[in-house]
Amino acid sequence: MNVLVWSALIALMVPLQSVLLPHVKIAGVTPDLALVAACLAGLLGGELHGLLVGLTLGWVMSLFSAIDPVVAMGVKGVVGYMAGFAGRHVVYLSWPMLTLGIFFLSCSAGSATASLLTLNGQQDLWWALRTVVLPQGVLDALAGGALYWVARSRFSVERWMAEYRT
Amino acid sequence: MRMVNFRAPYNTGRLVVLLAVVLLVGFLLLPTQFQGLFQRAGSPVGWVVSWPLRAVAGVSDGIADLWAGYVALRTVEAENRELRKELEYLKGQNSQLREAAAATDRLAALLDFKQQIGGTTIAAQVIGRDTGNWYRTIILNKGEADGLRPDMGVVTPAGVVGRIVKTTSATSVVLLVTDPNNAIAGLVQRTRDEGIVEGTSNGSARLKYIPMLSDARPGDRVVTSGLVGGFPKGLALGTITAIHKEDEGLFLSAELVPEVDGERVEEVLVIQSLAVPGEGDRLGAPKVKPKS
Fold it and tell me: Most buried among B29, B164, B180, B227, by the most CB within 10 A?
């Protein structure tokens, strides 16, 4: 995918995340589609792609949130990079495996965010895990898994991944 | 003398005339008896005739039903479709008008409130919510280009919404009163005890640092104290629902129900600058009357 397509995707991600998704909150939490997109970008395009998309998405999303931009960029960038690294070492990626992978990455990113943010005294790490990190991890994994499953059933993703990375 | 020939066809006519005369005379002289006789004689005839009559009536009704139920309904069905379409259109229009009326009411209240609080305020519309799950914020459709800056207070006629924490040229992010990371100076309206209002992790708010000897009780309203931050004095923050004494603490804390539900707010006013009262206004000095 070229820069234009990625830019359009990033621009669309903000209204999707801030306007539409708040209407479908589950347990007070919405899936972080930017994180899912960074994961998929890393898996499909490699480490550099994942890193760049993660950094950009983290920065753009932080403009429309009270979150510290450095934390948002850092966490999403690392997630994109790690997804790219993991994707390079996987020959065949099934959708349950990808779902588990996104769950793990989302939980790691959520825990890191909770540790890095200077949250109020009421919000300790256990609160963060219980109310944000784990529910969001589940939603992210489901969203990412569903997207990948749809993409795989419609397109030859493996061939595309191989061609895209070479 | 001519013999009466009953076989002759022309005599039939005479016979009929004779019979008619007899019947007429009979009807005139004995009306009741003749009617009864005819009635009795007609009964079996009527029974016989009723069969084809009913059969024809049945067929006629069937045809009428067929016509009314199918053939004539072809136009009714089209008419029904048109009416349904019109109903949908009117429903939509009704909904739009209700929405417009509600928006007009809200904006009128906002305008009225804007005149009440004085100072410079900017009306803005809520266009989104936080892109993450860590903070409770709303996104406004106005930003630096409209003169908005971080730390400006955001209010509605109902009370305080929150405080701007981030701006771009066209948007602003407002941290809601219910976010645990927000802190606004407040006071209990009845007892005048001051404290700090902050959000809680369950989506409500609390007033901290109330003096231990305070008489504050559930039902008391908490308003802005105007001491710190971008809010004038007296804007509603919430209503106390419970008072707690902190363990080994020197202060009381009160749980609040926020006056404004930040999740549902649609239009807000951003307080750009507070109306600074003059020296005379602050000291309550009488105004000099102009000489007449």
Answer: B164
**Cα–chain-centroid distance for residue B148?**
34
Q: Is the C-alpha dihedral spanning A45, A51, A54, A57 positive or negative? A: negative
Distance from CA of A18 to the nearest CA of B (A): 5
Cα–Cα distance between A72 and A63 in angstroms, integer? 10
Q: What is the pTM for the complete model shown?
A: 0.71
Query: H or E segment at A64?
Result: none
Of A72, A127, A132, the CB nearest to B133: A132
Give the up-direction half-sphere exposure of residue A86: CA atoms within 13 A in the CB hemisphere: 22
Task: State how far the Cα of A41 lies from the Cα of A164, in Å rounded to an integer.
Answer: 11
CB contact under 8 A, B130 and A64: yes
Q: What is the pLDDT of residues B231-245, one digit of tens each?
A: 888 888 999 999 988
- Whether residue A67 and residue B175 make contact (CB cut-off 8 A), yes or no, is no
Listed by number, the residues of chain B in 173-192 with a beta carbon closer than 8 Å to a beta carbon of chain A are: 173, 175, 179-181
Pick B206 or B28 by higher pLDDT. B206
Search chain A and give the residue with CA nearest B133: A29
Tell me, what DSSP letter sits at residue B266? -
Name the residue facing A63 among B168, B181, B198 (closest C-beta): B168
For B196, phi then psi, to 5°, come to -120, 130
CB A111, CB A128: distance < 8 Å? yes
Distances (CA, A) of B292 to B139, B257, B289: 54, 53, 9
Each residue of B173-207: pLDDT tens digit?
999 999 988 889 999 988 889 899 999 888 889 99
* Residues of B in Cβ contact (< 8 Å) with A116: none
What amino acid is encoded at B175 in this protein? L
